[in-house]
Amino acid sequence: MDNHKQKIKKIALIGNPNVGKSVLFSRLTGVRVLVSNYPGTTVEFLKSKITLEGDEVEIVDLPGTYSLEPSAPAEEVAVKMLNDVDLIINVLDATNLERNLYLTMELLETNHPMIIALNMSDELKHRGISIKDRELEKLLGVKVTLTSGITGVGIKQLKENIVQAKPSNIKTRTHQQRWVEIGKIIAEIQHLSYRHHTFLEILEDASVNHWWGAVIAVGAVFVSFQVVRFIGEGLINYVLGPFFNSVYLPVLERLSGFLSPGSFLHNILIGHLIEGKIDFQQSMGVLTTAPYVEIVMVLPYLLAFYLLLSFLEDSGYIPRLALLLDNIMHKLGLHGFAIIPILLGFGCNVPGILGTRILESERERFIASTLISIGVPCAALQAMIVGILGAFGGGYVALVYAVLFIVWLFLGAIMNYFLKGYSPELFLEIPPYRMPSLRLLLKKVFFRIKGFIIEAMPVVLASVLIINVLQLLHIFEAISGIFGPVLSFVFGLPKEAIWVLIVGILRKDIAAGMLIPLDLTVKQLVIACVVLSMSFPCIATFVIFLKELGMKRLIQATIIMLTITTLVGGVLNMIL
Amino acid sequence: MEEAIQYNRCTMKKTSLIKMKARETGTIFEIEGGSMFEKRLGAMGINVGKHITKLSAFVMRGPVAIKVGRTVVALGYGMASKIWITINKK
Fold it and tell me: How far apart are CA A134 and CA A434, in angstroms?
């Protein structure tokens, strides 16, 4: 009877979306993962290993699904994976037991060895819910544990239960029969006590209301901008800027004297001296401009953006925004839920395009991914746009955003008109508001920032190195001479700007940084920022687009991108 | 399709989810649109016989948000038009 114990090689965490599977996975394995308060954070399955009675066992965290009859690619992943697992840990939201039990019923019918985690049990009390977990265990025939991924309650017990897992031997039922059974179970094991509505619950209802919701959304967006600006500017002006100028600069000045200006190494490491001095924004050295752009100009805004995004994600506000924007998004061939990958794209286009897996159809995924790569500048580029254009006045920054937004709307509408197929409707669970756990929030921001530093820094340093070598070899002039005139004619930019676009393929932020020494007029800067945002997404985005949507779609998106960038840049050059 | 029937002392009105007004409550009595659709809604806890509250109604064929038990679900206009409700009015 117990011989299945030896056979456990692969364990899967499966459950409805947004029940805290990933937090639980993180608790069980010690692996850090991104978690949010909206359905669909996990679009790929995550793998790790745990030790179980001396043996290594693989454990996978699957994207959430409501049923074993999937309706989105992320859900399909979950259902497919089920075939080759030996044991299921079914994770349920204890505060929403009735709905969660439907998937449980389906899972029990698969006759996999299974145990159950009633997660979010820390919220039961203040929601006035009591659950008889021992009774539930008897009724379902598999082990049940009350857990909380946030506090860590029940995790040890859950681990111990794994070796006691067994199949339930329930035979297949119809849809109706399952619900009848669930009704009986709920009546027996769950008791709800009446309590007054809390402030959060009133806010929950208000923020999905068609009037109040719009008022709250406008307020939320306004506050978000202010918060990002406050944190970003604060860090630049009072922390990182002064640090670079008073601590790092003297070190570089010594190095500069030691290397003697004009030498090969000096040109590469320090760059050019501007009026006899190192200029962090213009010198273009591997040790000067490269770290300055990333750490002083980009990092503060990136940090601010991710703090805010993570707060919005964990609080549960984003799905409400999805509901409010549904009408507009339908005009672009998407539905409201697509706001999630788009918001992620404002951080970095790569997770944005990956995030489109929550959308049901390939058509929607193509539209959303193309809109992200053309119309959504990543946080690093945005920081540079603010840094460069902000000096001339906020109006110019707003102009760039306005142009991108209009392009985004029109492009979406055009693709919606010409692409075959239709866009499915919004069908989304809206989670309750939760006060984000500060520990998890900071962990997530740290995780994202670390990813940025590890991935971006080497590319930036390498880019600056390559630029300097090419410049020394006079290859710059040759290529600018060939392509430059086209650039001047269409966009009104100097021929050296071709390098900005080429470097933009590697990294957009350092490319934008290269605009500074070119001494452009405001008009040229606005055009350059728009063209840089819209033109080739960086190489990382390109690769992920290819992987997610295939070569044919990538070529289509590239053609769209080249056409629309030329068009918009050209028109701006004429009318500004 | 709005027929009023006398039932005890309450007037029960049958209407589609889109014609229901925000903050009204009612009971689902029919879900049209085939068994796949019914199952998909069902897996989220939206079944015939369920008591619901409508939370929002957007203009221009916009989505509808409803509360079923403790779950809030947002549905597209087309989906909402296939769900029929008996509204409870005192």
Answer: 28
How many interface pairs between A and B have CB atoms less than 8 angstroms apart?
104
Q: How far apart are the first and last CA of chain A?
A: 79
Given an 8 Å threshold on Cβ–Cβ distance, is B42 in contact with A127? Answer: no
A46 phi, psi to nearest 5 deg = -105, 140
Question: What's the CA gap between A68 and A61, in Å, rounded?
Answer: 16
In this complex, do A67 and B76 lie within 8 Å of one another by their Cβ atoms? no
pLDDT in tens, A20-52: 888 898 888 887 676 676 676 666 677 888 888
Give the chain A residue whose CA is nearest to the CA of B38.
A175
Task: Indicate the residue of B60, B65, B73 with minimum beta-carbon distance to A327.
Answer: B60
CB-nearest to B45 from A99, A322, A336 is A99
Instruction: Please tell me the distance from the alpha carbon of residue A8 to that of residue A356, in angstroms, as a whole number.
Output: 33
In this structure, chain B runs to a length of 90
Two tokens, residue B40: 């998909």
Q: What is the mean pLDDT of residues A245-251?
A: 96
User: Which sign does the torsion angle of CA B14, B15, B16, B17 carry?
Assistant: negative
Greater confidence (A72 vs A249) lies with A249
Interface probe for A, chosen from B54, B56, B59 (most Cβ of A below 10 Å), is B56
Q: From CA B82, how far away is CA B17, in angstroms rounded?
A: 8
- Encode A385-403 in three state secondary structure: HHHHHHHHCHHHHHHHHHH
- Residue A486 structure tokens: 């086209």
Q: Give A95 to chain B, closest Cα distance, Å.
A: 8
Nearest chain A CA: its distance from B52 CA (Å): 14
CA distance A223 to A413: 29
* Chain B closest-CA separation from residue A314 CA (Å): 17
Give me the residues paired with residue B68 across strands. B52, B71
- Nearest CA among A203, A202, A196, A426 for reference residue A317: A203
